[in-house]
Amino acid sequence: RNAGKSSLINRLANKPLAIVSDYPGTTTDPVSFPMELAEMGPVVFVDTAGLDDEGELGRLRVQKTLEKLRLADVGLFVTPAHEPLTEKEKTMIAEFMRMGRPLLVVFTFFDGSVHTTKEDLQNGNWVGVDNLSGKGIEDVRKKLLSLKDMIQPEPGILDGLVREGDFVVLVTPIDLAAPKGRLILPQVETIRELLDRDCGVMVVKERELGLFYHQLGIRPRLVITDSQVFHKVAADIPPDQPLTSFSLL
């Protein structure tokens, strides 16, 4: 606790996402923070409770931390540079290394040296940071980016459904629930993934779908609609036309 995990998250995001205080145990349950990390693209950082959390509630919090750790592609082991290495830290490092995943040791409160019990950790992948000044934060980003090829990206929402050169129709209702001047995030993400896969995309509202669909001259590989108009969309296209919704994707 109070190793500077939440402060590190805020520095990496360049904004105050996580709550920070001098009181040990400020972070209780794991909190996920999605952000963009340079050419690695969208990633999720998970801020957890400290490994030395105490009491029955503390034990449960550490258990939650371990659950998140087993899902992580990369571990950031955040430890104060000037404090001795604890038995709980040794155990946690050994457990993560057994998982065979990359571990980046982040020494916080770093002034150029570490406690003698932590010198062995400098034989691996490590970086020293000062969360107050921001010194070393860019090195953390660079170290994480160097691990890019070791991280398994999550499957795309259209994996196995479309391929290069396919044509896809998106049906996006514009009603009072729609954000003014914008599309909702699932629609935007679907458009972007289709473009990344070199597909053609047509976006229409449900009221215009019937008009444009029957003028296409090309059969869409897939029609994707907002679930609230699923039945109307299904009625306006041939029964054998593959159809799904943004929420199902």
Give a short summary of the structure:
This protein has 249 residues and is α/β, with parallel strands linked by helices. The chain has helices at 5-13, 55-71, 87-98, 137-145, 185-196, 206-213, 230-236, and strands spanning 31-37, 41-47, 75-80, 103-108, 126-128, 167-171, 200-204, 222-225, 243-245. Strand 1 and strand 2 (41-47) form a beta hairpin.
Describe this protein with a few key phrases.
249 residues, alpha/beta, three-stranded parallel beta sheet, 7 helices, 9 strands
- The biggest beta sheet, please? 4 strands, parallel
Please identify the structural class as seen in this structure.
alpha/beta
The neighbouring-strand order within the major sheet is 7-6-8-9
Query: Could you tell me the strand content as a percent range?
Result: 15-25%
Residue windows where pLDDT falls under 50 for at least 5 positions: none
> Between the first and last Cα atoms, what is the distance in angstroms?
39 Å
Overall average pLDDT? 87
